[in-house]
Design goal:
alpha/beta; Rossmann fold; two-stranded antiparallel ribbon; 7 strands; about 30% strand
Length: about 140
């Protein structure tokens, strides 16, 4: 049996959405930052409990760019969201509440909100971060 799941990656620009996708799909990591200028789609085939699962991952443009707001066309039929924030960027964490609200308004499966996972990224870069400011997590 073959199953397909569409997952969208959301969050501000420069939080590491593309890096997470590249690491998961192709086990690769690229140094340096190159902004995503349009939606990117990759997939990975997994075997789970004897079934083949095709996981489609849509890496969308940073939500804080001039392309503000979710594009319903790219989100259509999504069954889950990975919301990404940068631990070193308080604004990116605060903005996830807005993105969640938008997702809840336009996406549902059988009339119910789709699952959302919050991924706080760049923990490896938090050496210079004042940890006393992490009370919001």
């Amino acid at each position: 049996m073959s199953l397909t799941f569409k997952i969208i990656m959301l969050g501000n620009s420069n939080v590491g959405k593309t890096s997470i996708v590249n690491r998961f799909i192709g086990d690769r990591f690229m140094e340096g930052y190159k902004a995503t200028i349009g939606p990117d789609y990759q997939f990975k085939l997994l075997r789970m409990q004897g079934n083949e699962v095709r996981l489609e991952v849509w890496d969308l443009v940073g939500m804080d760019t001039s392309y503000k707001g979710l594009n319903r066309n790219f989100c259509r039929e999504a069954q889950g969201v990975i919301m990404v924030a940068d631990i070193n960027n308080l604004q990116s964490i605060e903005d996830t509440a807005q993105w969640k609200q938008e997702v809840d308004e336009i996406l549902s499966v059988n009339g119910r909100p789709i699952p959302i996972v919050l991924c706080v990224n760049k923990v490896d870069l938090k050496d210079g971060l004042d940890e006393s400011n992490l009370d919001y997590l």
